[in-house]
């Protein structure tokens, strides 16, 4: 009953805000470390093909991998080895 009542009101009078639905597949999200965690994980597991795939993805979206990125990945791999990641 209330739903019918609300639908007859103009949008600016309606007391309930409409719910926005986001299509995450269209939204290009960027992450602080990009694909570096995935690269480090696959290096740790020895999955060379997957590692190369994510290196290509990283370079296409974020540019070449810097020395700072390499240091971060080494630290992440060390955390994986110690069971802390």
List keywords for this structure.
single chain, mainly alpha, 4 helices, globular
Summarize the structure.
With 85 residues, the protein is mostly helical. The chain has a domain at 26-82. It has helices at residues 2-8, 36-45, 48-62, 67-82.
Describe this structure in words.
The chain is mainly α and 85 residues long. It has a domain at 26-82. It is 56% helix and 0% strand. Helix 2 runs antiparallel to helix 3 and helix 2 crosses helix 4 (67-82). The model has no long low-confidence stretch (mean pLDDT 79).
Could you outline the blueprint of secondary structure elements for this entry?
Elements: H1 2-8, H2 36-45, H3 48-62, H4 67-82
Number of helices: 4
Secondary-structure-derived class: mainly alpha
Largest sheet: none
End-to-end distance: 52 Å
Q: What string gives the helices and strands in order?
A: HHHH
Tell me the β content: under 5%
Stretches with pLDDT under 50, minimum 5 residues: none
- Name the overall outline: globular
Mean pLDDT: 79
- Radius of gyration using CA atoms only: 22 Å
Report helical residue fraction: 55-70%
DSSP strand count: 0
């Amino acid at each position: 009953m209330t739903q019918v009542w609300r639908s007859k009101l103009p949008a600016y009078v309606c007391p309930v805000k409409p719910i926005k639905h986001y299509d995450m597949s269209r939204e290009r999200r960027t992450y602080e470390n990009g694909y570096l965690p995935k690269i480090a994980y696959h290096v740790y597991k020895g999955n060379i093909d997957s590692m190369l795939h994510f290196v290509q993805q990283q370079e296409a979206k974020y540019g070449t991998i810097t020395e700072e990125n390499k240091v971060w990945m080494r630290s992440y791999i060390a955390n994986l080895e110690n069971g802390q990641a």
